[in-house]
Design goal:
It contains twelve helices and 20 strands. A five-stranded mixed β-sheet has the order 11-6-1-13-12. Strands 15-16-14-17 form a four-stranded antiparallel β-sheet, covered by helices on one side.
């Protein structure tokens, strides 16, 4: 079974933009030269692009290293329409021979972008006039992100999450005049996908429309980091260096840590309606002695409304043949059902405790059940040990169980040995 991966995009302090996303993804393990070669195909399909250079370098933001991606292009255009940019994106994807899911992602990002613009300006999405958003930078961000996600394998067996997005505040200058930050496009994009945003921590534009469009199409919103075992961390730098915080987008890639431990077992079942209670009881005991993990008897009604039982056994895969034969021989059933399945289980750690009665010392095995974070969920004395002591000393079983558990808790939580 392939271990599920998790990618957390942390934008709760410095926000997010297309160039920061590219920097963090490249920092996760993308070859810079291959990235440049991939996005350079834009020159062939986006009209008005006279030259295009991609500069990738390490920079520092408040002393922290991060990858900076800067697009340097000469363009000759006043504005581009939505359909023109979308056509260029599709042609680039075809040229790069990217997979269908990558193609769909890139087109969804652009549709999110232009739909927000169209709603704000009450225009048709395909004919909306894109100003800053129609530049080659936007297309580099979209195609570049799609290329990186595919080459890092992040469209497969990976859950991608985003922390709440810092959007800054104050005002910003655009070709449409002075606007409040976050821009109307950013607010509309986040609204359309039910993403949370948080103002500040400074008065500046921290979330761009392109960054928001990419994020909402690849990630699920979360309040805080999930349970994760980090393996690689990528840092993408923004264009500015703020005094208040490092202008860095962090991406943490790691393995999912399941809430429970798990194993693979087999479920063996049969229905019986003509077996005595004595035979069923004997069969249960024999199955347990021969390696069954557990045996359950479930009362049912069979055909003809006859009362019967389901005998259900949990076993290791290797014991299925042996236990099935015992079940058939002892009960006379004509067949069994075998169901391979996965169990979620708590980690169990055994140890022994000593208990005393009237100068007599006895040993009882204890099972301590813990979750994947090491938290103790249950402390349970072994029934067989407690039963034997109760019979030897002539005491109630519940007193033996209670005393054994009390001793175990003192050892675990107080460090008491005696």
């Amino acid at each position: 079974m392939v271990q599920e991966r998790i990618l957390v995009i942390d934008c709760q302090v410095a926000g997010i933009s297309g160039d920061m996303i590219l920097g963090a993804l490249i920092d996760l393990g993308i070859d810079s030269d291959k990235f440049r070669d991939a996005v350079s195909v834009l020159k062939k399909y986006l009209k008005g692009v006279e030259s295009l250079q991609i500069e990738i370098r390490d920079v520092k933001r408040k002393g922290f290293r991060a990858k900076r991606v800067e697009v340097k292009a000469q363009e000759n255009y006043e504005h581009r329409k939505g359909r023109e940019v979308k056509d260029a994106i599709m042609r680039c994807i075809d040229d790069l021979n990217l997979q269908d899911e990558t193609r769909n992602f890139a087109l969804n990002v652009f549709d999110t972008l232009i739909n927000a613009e169209a709603k704000i300006h009450v225009e048709n999405a395909q004919d909306v006039h894109l100003h800053e958003l129609g530049s080659v930078d936007t297309v580099v961000d979209i195609i570049g992100t799609a290329f990186c996600l595919e080459n890092l394998g992040l469209f497969k067996n990976t859950r991608i999450y985003s922390t709440p997005i810092a959007v800054g505040g104050g005002t910003l200058k655009t070709q449409e005049g002075i606007l409040s930050s976050p821009s109307p496009a950013v607010v509309e994009i986040l609204r359309s996908k039910n993403f949370a945003m948080i103002g500040g921590p400074i008065n500046a534009e921290l979330c761009t429309p392109t960054g928001a469009s990419i994020l909402v199409n690849v990630a699920e919103p979360i309040d805080r980091f999930p349970l994760i075992k980090p393996s690689v961390i990528g840092y993408g730098a923004g264009s500015k260096d703020f005094d208040e915080f490092p202008n860095i987008l962090r991406m943490t890639l790691g393995e999912n840590v399941p809430e429970f431990f798990s194993d693979e077992v087999s479920l063996i079942e049969t229905n019986v309606d003509d077996v005595t209670g004595e035979v069923i009881g004997y069969t249960l005991d024999k199955l347990m002695k021969e390696g069954a993990k557990s045996v359950s008897i479930i009362p049912i009604y069979t055909k003809g409304n006859r009362p019967g039982q389901i005998i259900q056994i949990i076993s290791d895969h290797d014991d299925v043949e042996h236990l099935s034969r015992i079940l058939m021989e002892e009960t006379g059933t004509l067949g069994t059902r075998i169901i391979p399945c996965k169990r979620h289980i708590l980690l169990r750690e055994p140890f022994n405790v000593k208990i005393r009665f009237n100068g007599t010392e006895k040993s009882v095995r204890i099972k301590v059940a813990k979750d994947s974070e090491g938290k103790i969920v249950r402390i349970k004395p072994e029934y067989g040990d407690a039963k034997k002591i109760a019979e030897e000393l002539g005491l109630p079983l519940r007193e033996i169980l209670a005393l054994a558990e009390e001793r175990a808790r003192k050892i675990i939580f107080e460090g008491t040995k005696s």
